[in-house]
């Protein structure tokens, strides 16, 4: 064998070994973590909390588990990942389907609420089952993984719906699919000419960042623009592995956004939310996109703040953070009526062209609009 050919073979072998090593790393992370209710017995978790995992799924990768401060019973990482008996306490008014997805499912595994975009559920499996998940009941009940046959009705529906421009992969977590499955989904969607953007809603860069390998990135690259929407809720989730995963996604040319949920005891103070939003931008290069008010999901009232509290939080961030770091605070209305912004109003009074505002510093300021049509009307009156 010639030296040049031998060098090529050696390089190919080294790349294959590296790829297999990366694949083993994230799979081992899952295996070494919490995968079933019985695994909770090795943690300092009360028996009544452990029993919750018999009603709702539990899964926590070892790396995310390692972030928990077990000396702090209110640790924000623990609250998001470890079952609590409070999840079994459903309040009157809480809903099994809090945002009305079911009414907008024209075919299996599709939600189509808005004209130009639709959700596709390629899998109902997650790398971690978050305790605050607004789809926890549907994810708990369905549990199916991926197959091309299962999404074929969805693909046919997308093909005959020319108003669609975006397909959003959700679940479950789409990045729990294998690289080959992700490539297959992407290629199937790319074959539909009117689709322009593939959006991926995932918590994997938070809970299992080693899953974001070069091979995963390559599987997503093609004709469609790609937008990855992550779900960091607390600055302590922004670890070096997460930073590397997000850098890999950005370097590939993917748009990177983040959705957070406002969670009591996790991120509901101005200090924590400000740090989270700044680190998302300055460390991860992810634009804070939405801050969701916690939905009316059954059994998660211990996470839910009041809307007034959320508006006060957003008021405290205004002026304190760069506009690039500001998320939009939204409520997803029950019944499938869509998202509405909940940001605080800075208008104190308005009459005609005269406005009175309260600045982010709390100062009262008057403003007079100067409009061409109003000026013409005033001139004619004279």
Oligomer: single chain
* Number of beta-strand segments: 12
What's the CATH H-level superfamily name of the largest domain?
Aldolase class I
> Strand portion, in percent?
15-25%
What is the chain-wise order of helices and strands? HHHHEEHHEHEHHEHEHEHEEEEEH
Corresponding CATH architecture of the largest domain: Alpha-Beta Barrel
How far apart the termini lie comes to: 97 Å
Structural class given helices, strands, pairing?
A: alpha/beta
Into how many domains do the coordinates divide?
3
- Low-confidence blocks of residues: none
Shape verdict? globular
Question: So how many helices?
Answer: 13
How would you describe this protein?
The structure is a single chain. The protein is of the alpha/beta class and 382 residues long. The protein folds into three domains: 1-29; 32-341, Aldolase class I (TIM Barrel); 347-381, no CATH class. Helix content is 35%, strand content 16%. The protein has a nine-stranded mixed sheet. Strands 10-11-12 form a three-stranded antiparallel sheet, with no helix packed on it. Helix 7 packs parallel to helix 9. The N and C termini lie far apart (97 Å). The mean pLDDT is 92.
């Amino acid at each position: 064998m010639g030296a040049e050919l031998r060098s090529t073979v050696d390089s190919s072998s080294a790349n294959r070994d590296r790829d297999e090593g990366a694949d083993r790393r994230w799979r081992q992370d899952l295996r070494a973590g919490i995968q079933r209710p019985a695994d909770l017995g090795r943690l300092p978790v009360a028996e009544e909390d452990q029993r919750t995992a018999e009603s709702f799924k539990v899964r926590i990768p070892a790396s995310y588990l390692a972030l928990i401060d077990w000396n702090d019973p209110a640790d924000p990482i623990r609250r998001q990942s470890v079952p609590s008996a409070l999840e079994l306490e459903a309040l009157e008014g809480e809903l099994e389907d809090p945002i009305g997805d079911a009414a907008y499912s024209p075919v299996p595994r599709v939600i189509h609420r808005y004209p130009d975009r639709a959700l596709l559920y390629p899998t109902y499996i997650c790398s971690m089952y978050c305790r605050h998940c607004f789809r926890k009941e549907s994810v708990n009940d369905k549990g199916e993984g991926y197959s091309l046959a299962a999404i074929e009705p969805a693909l046919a529906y997308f093909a005959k719906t020319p108003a669609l421009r975006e397909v959003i992969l959700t679940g479950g977590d789409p990045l729990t699919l294998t690289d080959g499955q992700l490539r297959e989904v992407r290629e199937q969607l790319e074959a539909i000419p009117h689709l322009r953007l593939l959006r991926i809603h995932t918590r994997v860069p938070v809970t299992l960042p080693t899953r974001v390998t070069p091979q995963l990135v390559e599987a997503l690259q093609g004709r469609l623009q790609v937008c990855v929407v992550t779900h960091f809720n607390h600055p302590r989730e922004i670890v070096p592995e997460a930073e590397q995963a997000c850098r890999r996604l950005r370097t590939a040319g993917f748009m990177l956004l983040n959705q957070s949920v406002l969670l009591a005891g996790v991120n509901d103070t101005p200090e924590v939310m400000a740090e989270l939003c700044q680190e998302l931008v300055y460390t991860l290069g992810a634009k804070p996109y939405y801050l969701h008010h916690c939905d009316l999901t059954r059994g998660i009232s211990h996470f839910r703040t009041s809307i007034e509290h959320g508006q006060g939080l957003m008021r405290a961030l205004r002026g304190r953070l760069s506009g690039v770091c500001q998320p939009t605070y939204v409520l997803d209305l029950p019944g499938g009526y869509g998202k509405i912004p909940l940001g605080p109003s800075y208008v104190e009074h308005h009459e005609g062209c005269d406005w009175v505002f309260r600045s982010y510093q709390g100062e009262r300021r008057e403003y007079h609009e100067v409009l061409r049509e109003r000026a013409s009307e005033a001139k004619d009156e004279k």
